[in-house]
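protien #1 (seq + structre)
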Amino acid sequence: MRPELSSPALFELVIFDNDGVLVDSEPISNRVMAAAITEVGLPTTTEDSMREFMGRRWEDSVAIVEERIGRKLPPEFSTRYRERRDAALAAELKPVPGVAEAIARIPLERCVASSGAPEKIRFTLEHTGLLHLFEGRMFSGTQVENGKPAPDLFLYAAEQMGVPPERCAVVEDTLHGVEAGIAAGMKVFGYAWYFEPDVLAEAGATPFRSMDELPGLLGF
């Protein structure tokens, strides 16, 4: 039985998050993040980092760390983290299983709206062979005032694509992302890879476990 919202006429645009939805970067980035935070005096596991920082902009994550350790992070912290993260991504990053095939079955306009910096979005999509699917339609949290869970980024992406929020479907994998999509007045589909389906559903998303399910959820 298909979900209530299954008609393709309901949507004109699909807005994809990047990390954890298009590219399987979350365990890699958060492993490096956890190590970096631990080094500055806040013991953190990869699981801790994923729970706290997945879906957030870098500057918002830094602000949380600084608040918890009670001091400013050293100037080289961000540079050192990005160098280590990029090296790990270059060595290990792969696309989310089945995502390219799913996108090929969805005949709607699409774009990316990611908390990551523009250069990171481009690097990860190019490295995984997905860049051609989103060239010229990539939007970053650095382009808006407030990052996820605020709705700013999704609203900005919809505006740039010329589609009203109520005609947009969002594909997210984090609680912060789901909350942002709901706050934007959009229908959110939650890829339950790192969060349990009921957790994403409680936040307001329609959960799914495999990218093979996504076209059907959108009505195709």
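ok now protien #2
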Amino acid sequence: MNFDKLLGRRVLICGEVGVGKTRLLTSFLRFLIDRGLGGDVTVIDLAPEYGGVGRSVESYYPGVRGLGYMRPSRVYPPRLLGRDAHEVLHYAEMNLMEARRLLDDYARSPTRILLVNDLTIYLHAGDPDDILRLLDLCETFAATAYEGMALEDDKGSGVTAREKHGLSRIKERMDFIVNL
């Protein structure tokens, strides 16, 4: 992939579990660092890292900790941990509280480049407009988003429908969508 084309653009990397979304985002991050732009980057990492689902950027590139790296102390995979709709929603709300704090921190002190790993974790309970507002704060935006069938079963909680709706809203504002 020609990463030069992504500078100054909005990019969404979508795909099923385990197809390499985070690996590609991390490759873009390394490209930015190699270009001397590491100090202009904020990474918000919302990947749950549970049972083979969701890998953090740090798992591919431990050096990310030396940059503007923000990660909740704990991220829950709601559809995998929740035994019923109530529990799925509970985990989604817990993730939302942590993720919102990080998004607010970024909004208070934005950088030119924002990378978000596993944006769909926010969309389970959060408003896609919160993400869209961040696009106005940065010059370059790239994010990963789950889109597939493996995690369809949300135990009747509605998080899958919210995720799909939010993702469709965000896609409208993207310059590039990479489907893996």
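Helices lie at 21-34, 57-60, 78-81, 85-108, 120-123, 128-135, 159-171.
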